[in-house]
Amino acid sequence: MDLLFLAGGSVFEVNLREKALNGYKALIKLNENFIADITLAAFRKSRYIKKIYVAAPPDIKRYLNAGHYDEFIQCDGNMLDNVMFTITGGRIDKTKKIIISSCDLPFLTSAAIDNFAGFCLNSKFEAIYPVVTKKVYDLKYSAAPRTWFKCHDETYTGGNFISITPEVILKNIEIIKNIYSDRKNPLKLASILGFKTLIKYQAGLLTKKHVEDVAESIIKTPCFGFVSEFSEIVMDIDKIGDYSVALGIYNK
Q: Which residue, 154, 164, 140, 99, is CA-closest to 232?
């Protein structure tokens, strides 16, 4: 599988911005390493990841280890604009599943990537999103708060990458924009999936399978929520509290 690595995002929280070179999330430093390089190194070690495309503004390139990626794609839009620019640029096969990832996963491992990518390569589903249960996440990273989606069967939080066929994105860009903008608001996400879904969510009756079925009906594509036992696919750095937790673990 190929990887589209999104490294152009800015840090908006003032206290965390002080830890990011030029204000870029990719250039948050943990000890002597930039967070983007830490994350890229894990993907580079994966046995399933073939070609790695980094999409980011040009001034980020000189800070990254060139051995960690295959091609740098210069783009300076928001996340979805950069995705669209890359997948329509002729570099990536639009008919084969790729992984799209954020750049700020300080504890990501190749084992966690292989666990997810191996499933995706052998799966009929064309849109696969990894989730982690609260029980699994709290075993390692309970000090770093998350946005939780409470279902009848479990309580989940979403990972920081997705496996998807680029053609699916092109056909569903407007609904994807809405889902992305409301990704940290479970009620809004449920409402995008329909009134019945919202009622079930509020009543505590919603299941992962129901969400998968509704998502599939909306984008006309087989969808699946992959439950991972690797909580490092979730632990990212959005706020200064996340940074403090990550730095504390690194220093240990």
A: 140
In whole angstroms, what is the distance from residue 103 CA to residue 136 CA? 22
Q: Give the Å distances, CA to CA, from 143 to 150, 168, 222, 245, 248.
A: 19, 36, 35, 7, 11
Contacts of 203 (CB under 8 A, 6+ apart): none
Question: Three-class SS of residue 41?
Answer: helix
Cβ neighbours, 10 Å, residue 147: 12
Give 221-250 pLDDT, tens digit per residue: 999 999 999 999 999 999 999 999 999 998
Q: Between β-strands 29-30 and 33-34, what pairing exists: parallel, antiparallel or unpaired?
A: antiparallel
- Backbone dihedral angles phi then psi of residue 165, each to the nearest 5 degrees: -85, 125
157 pairs with which residues across the strands?
A: 132
pLDDT in tens, 94-103: 999 999 999 9
Query: Residue 225 contacts by C-beta under 8 Å, 6 or more apart in sequence?
Result: 128, 129, 130, 131, 156, 208, 211, 212
For residue 125, what are its two tokens?
Answer: 């589903």
Q: Tokens at residue 92, please?
A: 């990536």
d(CA 156, CA 148): 6
